[in-house]
Each structure stands twice: as C-alpha cells, then as structure tokens.
Amino acid sequence: MIATLLDIVTSAAILYAVAAGLLIVFGVMKIINFAHGGFLTIGGYSALAVTKLGWNPWASLVFATGIGFVAGMIIERLVVKPLYSRPLDAILATWGLGIIIGQLITIAFGREVQFVQSPMSGAIEFAGASYSSYRLVLVLAATVIGVGIAALLQKTRLGLVTRAVIMNEDLARGLGINSGLVRFFTFSLGAALASLAGALITPLSSVDPNMGVPWLVNAFMLVLVSGVSFMSLLVATVVFGGAQVLVSTYVSPVLGGLTIVVAAAVLMRVRPQGFSRE
Amino acid sequence: MSAASALSVSGVSSGYGEAVIVRDVSLAMESGEILALLGKNGMGKSTLLKTIMGFLPVRSGGSIRVFGDTVSGLPPYRVARRAIAYTPQEQALFQDLTVEENLRLGLRDDRTFDAGLARVTKAFAFVGERLAQRAGTLSGGEQKMLLVARALMAAPKLMLIDEITEGLQPSVIERLAGVLRAQRDEFGTAILLVEQNVRFALSVADSFALIKSGEIVDRGRVGDAGAEASIGTHLSV
Prior knowledge:
The complex is a heterodimer.
Chain A: H1 2-29, H2 36-53, H3 59-80, H4 87-109, E1 123-126, E2 129-132, H5 133-155, H6 157-167, H7 169-174, H8 179-201, H9 212-224, H10 230-250, H11 253-270
Antiparallel strand pairs in A: 1-2
Helix pairs in contact in A: 1-5, 1-8, 1-9, 1-10, 2-3, 2-4, 2-8, 2-9, 3-8, 5-6, 6-8, 9-11, 10-11
Chain B: E1 7-16, E2 19-29, E3 34-38, H1 45-53, E4 63-66, E5 69-70, H2 76-80, E6 84-87, H3 99-104, H4 113-123, H5 125-129, H6 140-153, E7 158-162, H7 170-187, E8 190-195, H8 198-204, E9 207-212, E10 215-221, H9 227-235
Parallel strand pairs in B: 3-8, 3-9, 6-7, 7-8
Antiparallel strand pairs in B: 1-2, 1-4, 4-5, 9-10
C-alpha cells in the first residue's frame, strides 16, 4: 500500500517535471511544442554523454539543462520566431523538429537502447516499506522545479511580464513589454525543463532516439486538461498519474500506458475546461 | 507641426486588411495640451490610437513622430517606451492580476514603484489601500481609475486614452477630469483623449479634432467661436 502510494507520488512528480516546460510554452506562445519530446530526448542523451565522459552523474542535470536551454534558444530564433504570425505552421514545424532531433541523435549515438549511470542506487526504508532512493529524489527534484517555476512567475519582474503576456499579449506590448523576448526566454526555458526532465528519468529506464514520444503524448494531454495553470497541472498529474499507477499495478501495464490519454479525453468530453477553474 | 511637438501625425492612413479606416490624417499636439478627438462610433478614433501605438501599420507614406522622433514602423513596445501611456478601450486591465501587479506593469523599472505609488494615491487613495485585491473584482469605476493610475505610474509625457468615461457615473467622470487636468498642469503631460462623451471631453480639453469617416473634418480650440456649433453639427445623429 505504502509502495503504491509512493509510486503515485513519484509518477506524479515525474509527469509534472516533464509537462511543466510544455505548459509554460503553451501559456506564453499559444502553441503546443511538439519538439518537447525531442528536447526530453536531448536531456536523456546529455545524461548518456556525461556517463560516457565519466563525469559525476549528478552533473548530467546541470549539463542537460544547459544543453536544452541553448538548443531552445537556437531553435526559437531559427525556426519558431519566423512563424509567430502563423501558429499552425509553428506547431507543424515543432513536430518536424522533433523528428529531426531524433534522427540527429540516431546518427550521433546509434539506434540501440543504452543505459546511463544512476546518480544514486539502492533503496531506503520509508514508512515501513523499502523504496528506490532515486525515485524519492525525483519527488524532491519535481518539487524544486515546481517551487522554482512558481517563484519565477510570482516573485520576479520577469515572471510578472510573462504572466501579463500569457493573459493579454497585445495589452502587454502596449505597456512597453517586449513580448518577443518573453517568448524567446520562455521557449528556451521550456526546452531546458524538458531536457532536465529527460536527464532525471533516464536512470529509471534507458535512452533511445524515440524515448521522448510517449512522454510527449502524456504531457500533451496533461497540458490540455490544465489550461494555463500550474496548479491545475499539479492536480492533473496527481490524479492521472495516480490512475496510471493503479491501472498498471492492478490491471495491466499495457493499459496503464494508455490511462492518461484515455482519462484526459474522457475528462475533456464531460468538462471541456478540464482541471482549470475557468 | 514643429519637430518638438509631443505628437505629430502626418498624412497617416491605416486600417484592417483591405479596409482603410483612417484616411490621410494629420494633426499635432504640444506638451501640456489636452486634445479631444471626437467622433461617432466607427469613424476611426480608436484605429488612429492603435496606429499611433504601432498595432496597425501606417500606409501610404504617412509618418508619426513623438517628441520629434519617428515612431511609425516601430513595434508597440518600443513606441510605449517613449514615455507614452496608452489606455485602450477594451480589455485594458489584467483582470486576474492584483492591483499592485497592474500598477507595476505600468513601470519600466520596478525600483520606482514606491515613488509612482505615492504619486497615484494622491489622486486615487483606494489604489494604495487595495494593492492585494484582484483587479477583476474592482467595480467598473474603480477599474477605470486603476487604468488611469497605471498610466500615471511612469510619469508619462504623452497619454493616449480611449473612451475612459464609457459606462461611468458622473461623480467618477468628474474625478477623472480633475486628475487629467492636474496631470497636464503639474507635469506638462500631453493627453490625446478619444471620447464620445462630448461634455466631459470639452470640460478638460484645450483643443479638439473632429473625425468623420476616417478624416479630420475640423480642428480648433475649445471655446473658440463656432467650436460648439461645429461639434454639434458633426456629432448630431
């Protein structure tokens, strides 16, 4: 029972870490960044590179975040920015970009499944149950990401202007806010968060050029039911992540993999605003 | 039109898509002047303000200058940074942000918040008392006052105000009139006031311009002989 509860908490934490970057890009730019899975894959391979270089595995988190941020900066300028006035084309471009990232990674690292060194191993006793210490670290990491995003948005000038752009971009521009710069930073931050999430989850599984696809699908559905609210995203990840764990544990792992998509589709049918208040 | 005009609009046409709404408009105003831009619905008043702010492109070779610098062709955020405060007619507040956050967004530099707040609370005391309240929960009149307060936060040199009195009760309108007059008199701010409330506009304005079908059809000083008759003629149904 305790182990199942911890599984729910850690699954929710991982989903939150993955979807947060997608949500912030969606909020500011009004597009779903389908390259998000590609950025997550970049993070996974950044962790692999750290393993191959023999660096401290914890360095993969910083390395992946940096690589993701720089990749996001370059891609926003070269691919996304020219399509600001054509959001549908921008969405298609990010889809293509995700494919290109996967192919480039295949060329550089090969198609085969590979493994990274985990920053920590073993299990610890928690509430009478033995549990993976690294999975508990993931809860901490997701908490730090969540608190960090909340602090950035609520306590800084950058966060205030970002929220203003999310709510009404034209009004923000009329007040002297360079919304293009906000978009640039936000896209780069979203890419960095995806890459960080990729580095965080690889020690639990493996890396391969398509590792981002299932995460992208789940994150996409979570963002759809969350509106533009990080609090709604938190609720969505706990509810749907919990459902995924329960179905995987007590029914079938295969059905568990479909749980979030199906549950989100049902929720959108009966409550179009999803977990959002509006 | 001198180079030192607070605002100089010269031969400006603009519109939406193929539709031309503003046609060859030229007008100028000086620092310390309140200019009322009057006209019926759909005559191009708000379109002209959006064009000045850079939300709509200037067509056919016209130009817009603010304190001598050409701003036509610049994006809105760069126009706004020329000490211009723009209060649009619709969706002008961030409803889900607090009063304080809305005020901060009127500033370029957060460090000047205290000084700006001290200035605007002289005009609107309630603003300082309800900083943590969500802007969307204020009454209609208070929201309009918050709009003006946000515009005043950065001590603008030029204000563009679109239909601020719409739906307001007379006491609030009178209060806003007093604040705008004080801003002109104490700080020399130029104010371009788009209005349908002619009585309010003429009570605060130094000059007026009448716009009809996108063209300026009359321009004069408030109080000039024949001014009221001209306004009445052009605005009559």
